[in-house]
């Protein structure tokens, strides 16, 4: 997805892939290449990350055995439409994980906005980062850390790995599925024009709708009933007494 606000299908052959050994962070590698003029649609994978990071600057343990993959996009959509991209990414990662799970395994679901859970345990971290480039274009990086063999405890949620849930898959095999599912999801998303279909796919895979949740915001916590997401992808939290709070960003906890 390159060129200013391009709308149209992307062929899988349009994507490139560079596999590395030890890196600081696959997201950082993508941004370095973007600053040097990389045209985007470029996957960077690594065997290990020395300085992996999660949302809000949290450290992300990244030892060999798991999948560490980042996709560089240049000018993926008008800025006002980028808010829906995390939902498309969640759909893609969910699909890649679901396809490698054995019959009868625990359910795979999406926790708003884009965490992937297996039986309520987190198995994936997704981090989107972007920056303006000197030539006026905008770089956006989709970073995915998926627990294949290891389940490092990051302290916020219960965690699991695909192998602990019965999947016999290697990081390389899982990446092949992610490579395809991400291309498919980005085509449906279509620079933000396909948000309605992405939201429909997201809802079909969502976990916790109708349950009591707590959402941690930067300045406070809110508890209520998870009513799903609206047409812009915002979480709808029923606080009771007819009040529904729409939330654009926050950390969700069930129960």
From TrEMBL:
**What keywords would UniProt list here?**
ATP-binding, Biotin, Ligase, Nucleotide-binding
Output one GO MF annotation.
biotin--[biotin carboxyl-carrier protein] ligase activity
Q: Which Gene3D superfamilies match?
A: 2.30.30.100, Bira Bifunctional Protein, Domain 2
On whether ATP-binding is a keyword of this UniProt record, the answer is: yes
According to the entry, every stretch annotated as the BPL/LPL catalytic domain falls at 13-190
What is the protein named?
biotin--[biotin carboxyl-carrier protein] ligase
Q: Which CDD domains match?
A: BPL (cd16442)
What's its catalytic activity? biotin + L-lysyl-[protein] + ATP = N(6)-biotinyl-L-lysyl-[protein] + AMP + diphosphate + H(+)
Q: Which organism is it from?
A: Rhizobium herbae
Q: What EC number(s) does the entry state? A: 6.3.4.15
One Pfam family named in its UniProt record: BPL_C
